[in-house]
Amino acid sequence: MSMARKAVLTLSSNPIVTRLVSKYGMKLGASRFVAGENMEDTLHKVKDLNKDELLVTLDLLGESIYTREEAVVATDGAVRSFDAIRQKGVTSNVSVKLTQLGLDIDPAFCLENMDRIAAKAKETENFVRIDMEDSPRIDATMDIFLTLLEKYGREHIGLVIQSYLYRSQEDVDKLGALKANLRIVKGAYKEPREVAYPDKKDVDDAYLRLVASHLKNGCYTAIATHDTAIIDWTKRFVRENHIPADLFEFQMLYGIAASLQLELVREGYKVRVYTPYGKDWYPYFSRRIAERPANALFILKSLFRK
């Protein structure tokens, strides 16, 4: 992890910085990465993305909750989002984090909440993806996913795998045998070198291996990256290995590389935009800044001008 990224992640936990950015951030730059603080505003943005032939996955932000009541509220929000998607006629699925659903309180309680969401995804003929979080939570996340995968099938539930973790190839091999629908990401959490590759080249190399193995296993793969070298590699790989177009998609974050998203659509590729929304946007925003610390300078300049 670069020194700049470490500094941003450390600074983001400072209470003074948290209060400042939470108060002014949406007006002064966070709205670049967060579609809205409520469903109504967000669905307007989703409609605009759909007009450009971009698919969407909605993520109601919020993580590391501490009470069962908060977890139920988050679960209700995710369930309602499927109805809102259907009612508005937009093309979107949903992503969730298990810490938001009570994973740290009680994994069994979290499973109950996630089961409600997966059931709603199936009822509305839609799809939910479980985001992967930091390494201490991976095994519990995998257990919940595997339980619900057996119950609802890969048509309605998928998972995220992070290439910077040493264990990820073993996880992809295991999930590939089940034909699981996976989103491959590099990883955005602060992890020790005992569990994660410290060097970018190793992370990138692992990323390509994970994508290649999952696609060769005939499994649906979401290639979540803004790295043009990886995108170009993927184009060559699917062409040379005769991978069907309906077996993969590119995924990118809302507010990042918009022109590249549209270029890929024009070339005939499926592109999905990970679109976060909600009032609890600060942790997500901090990770986006950490991935590209130059963005922090923009926010800080705006705050001082304020």
UniProtKB/TrEMBL annotation:
Is Oxidoreductase among this UniProt entry's keywords? yes
Catalysed reactions, semicolon-separated? L-proline + a quinone = (S)-1-pyrroline-5-carboxylate + a quinol + H(+)
Q: Would the keyword Nucleotide-binding turn up in this protein's UniProt record?
A: yes
Q: Which GO terms describe its molecular function?
A: nucleotide binding; proline dehydrogenase activity
Q: Where is the signal peptide?
A: none
| Needed cofactors | FAD
Pathway listed: Amino-acid degradation; L-proline degradation into L-glutamate; L-glutamate from L-proline: step 1/2
Looking at its record, which EC class is this enzyme? oxidoreductase
Q: What's the protein name? A: proline dehydrogenase
